């Protein structure tokens, strides 16, 4: 059991020093030339009038020196979304509303409205976010498109959640940070495997060359992570890690809503490429085993077990601090050790979602 504990710790340390240090110590390379691309921002919404009223102005008032447009795809809303967009168009000429009045057959989730939005986009670079998201700054659009260099077709950003009081908020934000630590670090290591639709950009050419979402079958989700998993590689993907390029969303307010949301997200993981499933599975499995094996190993030789534990503890605390600083989640750092222990229960709660059939809704 002690050997198993030492082995699990060694694997964890490998992930921290090979992958996660890349985000912790990330410094963007200076660009040889800077170009401002025309951008089409796409937001899909279904019965999101309240969120659009509060969040969409943050997208519409972006400071951007060249041509851009904001496309809101109104997917069969029965609330006031259509009338709200009509009013906003009177003030913001670069706003385009696409109203869908029929449900797409055999295309579950958000894929159909998003495909229509990309088809309607006038510009090659499309920038995606959600109706409940607001850019962290007026330069979000500019900073995200600045991730495009020669050969880049996918740009990954960070979608954070607003800071609220309470332990649930800390758990949600820590899980979001932990996920970003992985997908951003792996992308920096040349192994991109996912992105989040709250803050993601790619080119129309890439989308249509890969036949859009047609290869993703009837999976309700996956319009963000599965598509990136399918098309991203070490040559065509970059990341933008700048506080001004983040988006902010409202976190769920109840445990039930959060569990439902995360279960829907994890239901797409089984469709990742085999190498990504192995890479993510090995990290999660050794993370899950770490604390139980540590407790058992204390019975073997508590001094040796404590030494192994502290090696990971110090490494993790240091790299978490640097990474949380990068993603502006530093207020979580004093809780990181407790939140890391919580991840044992997190894996127990959400592991069944990997085998469950995904829900057909996208809200």
Describe, in plain words, how this protein is organized in 3D.
- It is a single chain.
- With 363 residues, the chain is an alpha/beta fold.
- It folds into 2 domains: 2-23 and 274-354, no CATH class; 29-270, Spore Coat Polysaccharide Biosynthesis Protein SpsA, Chain A (Alpha-Beta Complex), CATH 3.90.550.10.
- 48% of the residues lie in helices and 13% in strands.
- It contains 12 helices and 10 strands.
- It has helices at 2-24, 49-60, 81-91, 111-120, 140-145, 167-188, 204-209, 225-231, 255-266, 274-297, 302-326, 336-350; strands spanning 39-45, 68-75, 95-100, 125-130, 133-135, 154-156, 159-161, 200-203, 237-239, 247-249.
- It has a 7-stranded mixed sheet, sandwiched between helices. It has a 3-stranded mixed sheet with strand order 5-10-7.
- Helix 1 crosses helix 6 (167-188), helix 1 (2-24) runs parallel beside helix 11 (302-326) and helix 6 (167-188) packs across helix 12.
- The longest helix is centred in the C-terminal third of the chain and has 25 residues, at 302-326.
- The radius of gyration is 21 Å and the shape is globular.
- The N and C termini lie far apart (44 Å).
- The mean pLDDT is 93.
